[in-house]
Amino acid sequence: MLKRIQTRDLVLGMYVQEFCGSWMDHPFWRAKFLLKEPSDLARIRATSITELWIDTDRGQDVAAGTVTLTQEEVEARIDTDFSDLAAMHAMESTAAAKPRPAPMAPPCRNALASMQDELRAAAAICSRGKDAVISMFSEARMGRAVDAAQAQRLAQEINDSVTRNPGALISLARLKTADDYTYLHSVAVCALMVALSRQLGLSEAHTRSAGLAGLLHDLGKAAVPIEVLNKPGKLTDEEFDMVRRHPVAGYEMLKEAGQVGAPVLDACRHHHEKMDGTGYPDRLAGEKISLIARMAAVCDVYDAITSDRAYKRGWDPSESLRRMAEWTGGHFDARVFQAFVKSIGIYPVGSLVRLVSGRLAVVTEQGSRSLVTPKVKVFYSTRSNLRIAPEIIDLGAVGCNDRIAAREDPAKWNFPDLNAMWSGLPSHAPA
User: Fold this and answer.
1) pTM (2 d.p.)
2) Taking a C-beta distance cutoff of 8 angstroms, is the pair 276, 331 a contact?
3) Which NCBIfam families match (predicted)?
């Protein structure tokens, strides 16, 4: 069993499963090992790390009475009370003076559209969304005001898809080509913002506002030359400065048009701010960054690092969350990031995982009972090193004895049909 303990309770004979913190904060090249040497224990206690995971099945358990957290209890803590953040967002909204509807409850599982049905609908939305965003960017490049009504209609269509099945459009929009990135990124961030808003329990009006902010947050990139946006190599200092000016450029475009509310303007200008004050353009820090901007920062980065770009391949969704967790506190608001993880899952759709049975599987859908028990499609045996007949398994089902043992790096296995296996569509097919 995995248990999360304080570093001060660590003793020799325990099996270290994972440190809670950045890999840069601890002195070991590996994160999983049996703690046998007193010198290693001293080195761990000398670091800034205060908590870690141990595996009691592979090493000594904690002493009776020691305060620990199981994996399930840690999950429960993700359900943080976000009422203060929701209240902050209400004050920032131009409609704050109006009565607010009660926070939305998540839709019932049996009311959700099936994943495959919604994936087909999501593919059509991605195609229309790409065309709409291209049109908005073209109008902006010619100095014309954004068609706010068109943007709101598209944001609502994306909102409706996320309501029917949260995982479908979010996952599909990640499968964009490098050439489509700038446009489908806006669609993806819109969907992520809607899902995050619902996880935070924000009102319907605030959720619509967050979706529109996600759709328009990068409008300022219309002022950046295409050859710079799609440059496959390292940007020059001058080119990097051009890109860094896009939040202010987009803010000015939207402000001049005068057709969107203050929260959307704020998200456009401040989605590259960081909690430690090192972001841009205004170097805001902590509570000076609005909730909607903190939400946009998380959603923007997640889609950026999981998508193929002109200069790099996208990271695996689950690995991306692990890396983002290391940046939390400095880059992201910790509570917003926790809610984001809850909204898409610890193992997002498309993640490659290894089960304790030795089989490889791709996550096809989030489970209804736990963040660590999604539905998966098994297709490969690591024991025989052969493909096996694909089979959908609900790891949260009663009587299921298999579970996720670890993430796997897709680059290591190079399965050409990995995305097709969970989406039912050819790779890079959303547009």
Assistant:
1) 0.74
2) yes
3) HDIG (TIGR00277)
Give the tens place of pLDDT for each residue, 39-88. Answer: 888 888 887 777 888 989 999 998 877 766 665 555 444 333 333 444 44
What's the CATH architecture for 81-344? Orthogonal Bundle (1.10)
The predicted structure's pLDDT at residue 357: 95
pLDDT score, position 82: 35
Mean pLDDT, residues 179-193:
92
If you write DSSP's letter for every residue of 314-371 in order, what string do you get? PPPHHHHHHHHHHHBTTTB-HHHHHHHHHHH-SS-TT-EEEETTSEEEEEEE--SS-T
Closest CA to 14 of 35, 31, 32: 35
Which tokens is 318 given?
Answer: 């689950």
Helix (H, G, I), strand (E, B) or coil at 104: coil
CA–CA separation, 128 and 154 (whole Å): 8
* Domain boundaries of the chain, sorted by first residue: 2-77, 81-344, 352-423
For β-strands 359-365 and 2-6, DSSP reports them as unpaired
